[in-house]
Amino acid sequence: MSADLPVEEPPRRLTESIGPRDSDVYHRAYLRWDAYYAIVFAATFLFILSGSDSGTGPRAVAAVFFAATAPWYVLVGRQALLTEGEDQRRAALYLVGLALFFLVPSAFVGETRIATFALAPQCFMLLRMRWALIALAVTNIAPVVAWALMRRPDPHDLFFNSLFAVVTLAFSAILGSWILMVIEQSKERAALIAELETSREEVARLSAAHGALAERERFSREIHDTLAQGFTSLLMLVQAVESEFERDAPLARRHLDLMARTARENLAEARALVAGAGPADLDGSSLPDALRRLAARHEEQTGAPVRVEVSGTVRPLAAGVEVVALRSCQEALANARRHAGPDAAVTIALGYGEDALRLLVRDAGRGFDPRAPHDGYGLAGLRARAGEAGGTAEVRGAPGQGTTVAVELPVQAPAQASVRTRSAR
Question: Is the pTM higher than 0.90?
Fold first, then answer.
């Protein structure tokens, strides 16, 4: 809204930085498992039907039992998998039934053990690590034992089938343990992301509230330093005109003209505030000229002399620095009008240094005790303005010895500015 306070963008939501998250993506991921199970089921079923060494009868029995695993998975197992095995009784019931539907056909047809590649992941998905390893061992070893009892194979075939079962068990245990570790880490990471997102949202809310409060304080200072002071001047002029109507009409008319000019200046400041522009006194004008106009208005309103001294190389500065200097001078002059007493002379000294802008406003009025409590808003706003610009503001005074307002604001040295300009080129 104004040149003296940049408006920061609120922090983005975490989901904006990492991309949108779909709440159903976890369930949709199981469609891939469904496809994987369907492929393994179809391949195993074809192996059972296409062989000839076990005879038609045993293969038919094996095919019937193995076919029952499909509806058992759809009706019972999939729901247990979607709930991540939270219902351990349901998970155990499903795995027991699955083991029976798998063990019978594997006793008749050895090729049924290919389905182990689809059964092993389900053990790790549904059970805790220890029970998953036990279920995995049963799934790999029991079919070989049942097949050996039913078929009475020669030692050579029994050795290779047993070796295949042991290798499959070891591979499934290692891979399954690693997958479980990845899943646990993914869950922890998801919980951390959710917590971080909540924290970021809270930070964004607090940041927005802080920004609104800072803007409110800035706007309060603007109103205090412009409109409120203008209205105070109008009230003082009204009181002066009331006492001058009968005894000094020309002076009263002059004060009426000054009231009209003050009202117009207040109106210009109000429009600048609404438009979010800088102070009207700085519009198309330098800072020293703006301070001279403030001094002239102060002389007209109070009759007290004001001297303006400018030292150093006058040059355009950052808008925020000039605004703080102008508002600080306005506040110092307003305090002089209210507290310094009639005809208190004022000196305004503006110094342009290489790395700082210094403003000194000194009046020869009543002064005050700095240790006494003060309820006014002006001095606090004066220090706040200087602090926001990275500078300092100090108010010194003593009873009967006047008041001095000293403001120092950092600026970019001309030599540094020229070096940076050449570097940019």
Answer: no
